[in-house]
Amino acid sequence: MDAILRGEPMIGFGRDPLNPYSPRPLEAVGAKSTRRLKDRVTESCPRVPGVYGMLDRKGELIYVGKSKSLRSRLLSYFAESNKKEKGGRIISAARAIQWETQPSEFASLLREMQLIRQFSPRWNVQGVPKRQRPVYLCLGRSPATFFLAPLPPEGCIAAEGPFFGVGRMKVAVDSLNNVFKLRDCGQKQVFRFAEQLQLFELDHRPGCLRVEVGTCLGPCAAACTHREYDVAVSAAESFMDGFNNEPLTTLRDQFDKAMKNRQYELAGRNHTMIESLEYVERKLTMLNSARRKYSFVYPVAGYDGCGIWYLIHSGEVADVIAAPRNEADRRSLRPTMKRWEKLMQTQLTRGHGPFAHTLPVVASWFRKNKSELKEKAVSPAKAS
């Protein structure tokens, strides 16, 4: 922060992998008081799309945000009505603000997500109430299980998100592991499958009661073969793909049975689990629908003339190029359009594209801006 007050340049946000132009300049202002910081923003911040970062007195990036009008968004943090809200708490801890303009609101959304993943600012991932904290639903580890993570780790069988509400997502994870009978114990637990050879016949005791009550296949107690467990994992992966509603069907049947038998406490627990899984199913349906439906070229104009053509493939941003400005530019892009057309003939495996993290942004953007699909989305052949 002292560097800003002395007029020294700040370390930027770093390379933007979805910017086909030269790096965009970073601007920053700092002040020792909130009032003076507001004045500095008013003096120099433009009314254009972009991303911004809040820095504390040590110069640490504590929050990243985006807006289609940077100046309006940043000044809203200083509003009297915002003092007790999240924005007010962020600005009270900030002593400097830096921003980077973007050519469009869509570009700002993509850049914001990339920066959050890159820096994990504490007010984006930790400094918010737990019920609002973003997490990813993951299927992985060995033997596979459902679990939550702030960001999907490498090597997951499947991962989707972000989901919001750690409490209800924990309920959902417990429900999913119970329905698919997957383990939920730690990696330190010793696992033994039924087909594993052993010198002496041993009766392996399970690590918990779930085997006894029938909610786990028991890979820790040789109660199932590796193949049997893999079948359950495949069914769980099918749920993540949006093709298997077994968890909700099972829980609803259990709820109806509990109500019929007047087991109201059990029915209440099932109702809580159903509500959590309904939220997960809605989100998975949206993401998987985008994965199946969204494959096209999406041209987006830039307020500063820096338009961008995005290749949306299987719901993810797969590539970007600078928008052509004349017929000569358009002709020069024909080889790229042919390459894009060839790429779109193959289905992109979930989570393995170059920018897999863009799927939630793409899905949400076109759900809210349906007219963009009709007016702008074209095939590579038509774009050229």
Automatic annotation (TrEMBL):
Judging by the UniProt lineage, the source's domain of life is Bacteria
Pfam families linked to this entry? GIY-YIG (PF01541)
Provide the GO biological process annotations.
Answer: nucleotide-excision repair
For this record, the Gene Ontology CC terms, alphabetical, are:
excinuclease repair complex
Q: Which SUPFAM superfamilies match?
A: GIY-YIG endonuclease (SSF82771)
- Domain (GIY-YIG) spans 47-125
Name of the protein:
UvrABC system protein C
- Species name: Rubripirellula amarantea
